[in-house]
């Protein structure tokens, strides 16, 4: 009866931004990004991609509570970069990797059906 | 914003098996986070079409309305068109009513038993308003017996019993309800790397080798009948159960074999319900993942506030 609707887990409510940014007030070049209606799927690939950026000193994410449908990604970078820059870089790199994966899979499908 | 430097990887794919409802492929040069994201998206975020609303006009069968409605919802429907369909709640053509051609498909079922023989009502008795969305056909093309041409049984009717209903099928994702999940199961395993210490192995007798080889519940190792050497016959049969490692320790030979899970090679097994072809399921998952990444991009109005540190901050960031 009082269970939340299931679509609330993946539909961003009106008036809420998908991604919001909050600068850390104590550490320079550190910030938290709150991503609404996402969980480990996006959080994990984002975190692991951020780890590959040498300018990133710290990158982690958490789900504050299973009934709060959002993840908080915390990024701390060197002075050569900024959290926003590192975040954009990682999203672009992941997009590029998935593009490559898609074309690799399609090429392999063609090759497989030809050989078969 | 984006510099010339890129840390994107270039994953490699090799397909081993490919059928309509099954695919097995290798994914290399990427890490577990991408593999797991693909697995999660394939199971719970690739959209398909499933029956979501049932209006029953006549039901004199032994099952009640709710039971039949639930069984109808679980029938997989061919969903090639699902990626381009609209979600009912977002559809502006029908004001969220969820019953127009852009976001739904209508089905009808009208069956009455007129003979003394029990009548099976199956998914083949469902008639669709859209030929591209229909119950999945599970017939085996190679089989020849007449019993082969059967759909999913919904209910059985005795003489005089009748079932008449209208059903609306809509687009959805597995995260909402499992009936929308296009995957029967999706798994991946880390490719094992197995190294046998030949020096230690030579100190074993043939009986001890046989005993050690048999300690694995799956057939990973075998003894070459000619050379009496232990060799790996199927590394992927290894289930990471550590049985051979424990046996080696019990025999007083720790380090006899070294088994490492490679962190950049994954063997995927994709089994589809038939709603989407297994190969298309993988491609749809990659597309959905890209859409999710686009959704989490920073928008223009997410402005980085530099005010706090003023000139000092700008100087420290080398800007």
Automatic annotation (TrEMBL), chain A:
<dbReference type="InterPro" id="IPR008193">
    <property type="entry name" value="RNA_pol_Rpb11_13-16kDa_CS"/>
</dbReference>
<dbReference type="InterPro" id="IPR009025">
    <property type="entry name" value="RBP11-like_dimer"/>
</dbReference>
<keyword id="KW-0808">Transferase</keyword>
<comment type="similarity">
    <text>Belongs to the archaeal Rpo11/eukaryotic RPB11/RPC19 RNA polymerase subunit family.</text>
</comment>
<dbReference type="GO" id="GO:0003899">
    <property type="term" value="F:DNA-directed RNA polymerase activity"/>
</dbReference>
<keyword id="KW-0240">DNA-directed RNA polymerase</keyword>
<feature type="domain" description="DNA-directed RNA polymerase RBP11-like dimerisation">
    <location>
        <begin position="31"/>
        <end position="103"/>
    </location>
</feature>
<dbReference type="GO" id="GO:0006366">
    <property type="term" value="P:transcription by RNA polymerase II"/>
</dbReference>
<dbReference type="InterPro" id="IPR037685">
    <property type="entry name" value="RBP11"/>
</dbReference>
<dbReference type="InterPro" id="IPR036603">
    <property type="entry name" value="RBP11-like"/>
</dbReference>
<dbReference type="GO" id="GO:0003677">
    <property type="term" value="F:DNA binding"/>
</dbReference>
<protein>
    <submittedName>
        <fullName>DNA-directed RNA polymerase II subunit RPB11</fullName>
        <ecNumber>2.7.7.6</ecNumber>
    </submittedName>
</protein>
<dbReference type="GO" id="GO:0046983">
    <property type="term" value="F:protein dimerization activity"/>
</dbReference>
<keyword id="KW-0804">Transcription</keyword>
<keyword id="KW-0548">Nucleotidyltransferase</keyword>
<dbReference type="InterPro" id="IPR022905">
    <property type="entry name" value="Rpo11-like"/>
</dbReference>
<dbReference type="Pfam" id="PF13656">
    <property type="entry name" value="RNA_pol_L_2"/>
</dbReference>
<dbReference type="GO" id="GO:0005665">
    <property type="term" value="C:RNA polymerase II, core complex"/>
</dbReference>
<keyword id="KW-0539">Nucleus</keyword>
UniProtKB/TrEMBL annotation, chain B:
<dbReference type="InterPro" id="IPR011263">
    <property type="entry name" value="DNA-dir_RNA_pol_RpoA/D/Rpb3"/>
</dbReference>
<dbReference type="Pfam" id="PF01193">
    <property type="entry name" value="RNA_pol_L"/>
</dbReference>
<comment type="similarity">
    <text>Belongs to the archaeal Rpo3/eukaryotic RPB3 RNA polymerase subunit family.</text>
</comment>
<keyword id="KW-0548">Nucleotidyltransferase</keyword>
<keyword id="KW-0007">Acetylation</keyword>
<dbReference type="GO" id="GO:0006366">
    <property type="term" value="P:transcription by RNA polymerase II"/>
</dbReference>
<keyword id="KW-0240">DNA-directed RNA polymerase</keyword>
<keyword id="KW-0539">Nucleus</keyword>
<dbReference type="GO" id="GO:0003677">
    <property type="term" value="F:DNA binding"/>
</dbReference>
<dbReference type="InterPro" id="IPR036603">
    <property type="entry name" value="RBP11-like"/>
</dbReference>
<keyword id="KW-0804">Transcription</keyword>
<dbReference type="InterPro" id="IPR050518">
    <property type="entry name" value="Rpo3/RPB3_RNA_Pol_subunit"/>
</dbReference>
<protein>
    <submittedName>
        <fullName>DNA-directed RNA polymerases II, IV and V subunit 3</fullName>
        <ecNumber>2.7.7.6</ecNumber>
    </submittedName>
</protein>
<dbReference type="GO" id="GO:0000419">
    <property type="term" value="C:RNA polymerase V complex"/>
</dbReference>
<dbReference type="GO" id="GO:0005665">
    <property type="term" value="C:RNA polymerase II, core complex"/>
</dbReference>
<dbReference type="Pfam" id="PF01000">
    <property type="entry name" value="RNA_pol_A_bac"/>
</dbReference>
<dbReference type="GO" id="GO:0000418">
    <property type="term" value="C:RNA polymerase IV complex"/>
</dbReference>
<keyword id="KW-0808">Transferase</keyword>
<dbReference type="GO" id="GO:0046983">
    <property type="term" value="F:protein dimerization activity"/>
</dbReference>
<dbReference type="InterPro" id="IPR036643">
    <property type="entry name" value="RNApol_insert_sf"/>
</dbReference>
<dbReference type="InterPro" id="IPR022842">
    <property type="entry name" value="RNAP_Rpo3/Rpb3/RPAC1"/>
</dbReference>
<dbReference type="InterPro" id="IPR011262">
    <property type="entry name" value="DNA-dir_RNA_pol_insert"/>
</dbReference>
